[in-house]
Structure formats: C-alpha cells, structure tokens
Recover the amino acids of this structure.
C-alpha cells in the first residue's frame, strides 16, 4: 500500500492509471466493493458509459475516500519570501 502525505500525493498516484491498473491499485484500500466494479464493467460493456468517463468518476471517488480515510489535506507551499525570511532567523 502507498502511504500518502497529502492530497497531491493521491492526485499524482491516481493520475497515470488506466482502468485496469486503477482497480488493482485501489483494491487494498477497500473503497469500492466487487459489486461496484461489476456495475462499472457492465455500464462499459453495455455501451452506456465510456470507460474514460467511468474512470474519471472513480478517481474522484477514490480521491475523496482516501482524503476522508487518512484525513489528508492539501499540500502547503511556502513562498520564496517566507522561506528566505525563515532562513534569516
């Protein structure tokens, strides 16, 4: 399992995944059930929803699920001015 420090880590982890890789990678986190996967596979196989559309929604749901489960926050970036002021003290 991947350890996430913040939501940027989640985004970077999810972004490159295709449909099959997504299901394999997200399985250990128990965000989705087998029934969820079957439902999505059925929608795609039946031509009701494009795989890319389903995957986009799944990634959003996984992002929210991981955020909630691990209480993840947005990554905070400090400006150069703040970093410079800190290095002076």
């Amino acid at each position: 399992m991947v350890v996430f420090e913040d939501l940027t880590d989640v985004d970077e982890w999810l972004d490159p995944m295709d449909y099959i890789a997504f299901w394999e990678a997200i399985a250990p986190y128990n965000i989705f059930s087998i029934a969820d996967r079957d439902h999505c596979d059925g929608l795609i196989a039946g031509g009701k929803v494009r795989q890319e559309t389903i995957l986009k929604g799944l990634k959003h749901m996984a992002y929210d699920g991981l955020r909630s489960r691990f209480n993840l926050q947005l990554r905070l970036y400090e400006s150069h001015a703040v970093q410079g002021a800190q290095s002076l003290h």
Observations:
- Helices lie at 7-14, 19-26, 34-45, 51-70, 80-88.
- The chain is about 65% helix and 0% strand.
- Residues 39 and 45 are 10 Å apart (CA to CA).
- The longest helix spans residues 51-70.
